[in-house]
């Protein structure tokens, strides 16, 4: 069973809870928005910008248009209820992830950078995870490491002989 799959907590309440959690743990900027099949939560904390993209389900997906057994088509109200339940579940899961990461940092179990590395925003506007995933795939295929974060050749170390 998926975490919070039967939650009655609204998406708005989960977003508000995320914002309060971020403030409590020291975030000094917060935003959220939605479009193109996903929602976004972004914040600044510890001098770093962090971005989470939360994929939203497709309202027309079979899981919403048909009953779980797949034998009956749901009516529009049932479809909307099933869709909204999944949206509420995803927001609760995101709240849990963010809160757990911040608590682990606060407790000294890990560092902010280690917990949020994949979601840290680079100067290009993409997250480190968005940049690193293709690099990682390429490294596994070729067996060669990327040269640097910016795609530049690795610096040469010159010994001065002293």
Beta-strand percentage range: 5-15%
SSE-based structural type: alpha+beta
- N-to-C SSE string, H for helix and E for strand: HEEEHHHH
What's the total count of β strands?
Answer: 3
Quick take:
By secondary structure, the chain is α+β, with helices and mostly antiparallel strands. The chain has helices at residues 11-24, 62-65, 76-106, 112-116, 128-142; strands at residues 29-35, 38-45, 48-55.
Characteristic terms for this protein:
3 strands, alpha+beta, 43% helix
What does this protein structure show overall?
There is one protein chain. A hairpin with a 2-residue loop joins strand 1 (29-35) and strand 2 (38-45). This protein is an alpha+beta fold and 162 residues long. It has helices spanning 11-24, 62-65, 76-106, 112-116, 128-142, and strands at 29-35, 38-45, 48-55. The chain has one domain (11-134). Strands 1-2-3 form a three-stranded antiparallel β-sheet, covered by helices on one side. The model has no long low-confidence stretch (mean pLDDT 91). The protein has five helices and three strands, in the order H-E-E-E-H-H-H-H. Helix 1 (11-24) runs parallel beside helix 3. 43% of the residues lie in helices and 14% in strands.
């Amino acid at each position: 069973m998926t975490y919070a799959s039967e939650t009655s907590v609204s998406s708005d309440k989960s977003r508000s809870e995320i914002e309060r959690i971020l403030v409590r743990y020291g975030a000094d900027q917060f935003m959220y928005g939605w479009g193109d099949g996903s929602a976004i939560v972004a914040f600044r904390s510890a001098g770093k910008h962090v971005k989470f993209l939360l994929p939203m389900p497709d309202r027309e997906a079979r899981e919403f248009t048909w009953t779980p057994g797949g034998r009956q088509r749901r009516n529009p109200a049932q479809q909307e209820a099933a869709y909204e339940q999944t949206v509420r579940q995803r927001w609760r899961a995101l709240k849990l992830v963010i809160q757990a990461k911040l608590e682990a940092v606060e407790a000294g179990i890990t560092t902010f950078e280690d917990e949020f590395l994949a979601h840290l925003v680079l100067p290009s506007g993409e997250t480190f995870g968005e940049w690193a995933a293709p690099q990682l795939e390429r490294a596994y295929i070729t067996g060669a490491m990327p040269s640097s974060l910016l795609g530049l050749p690795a610096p040469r170390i010159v010994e001065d002989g002293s």
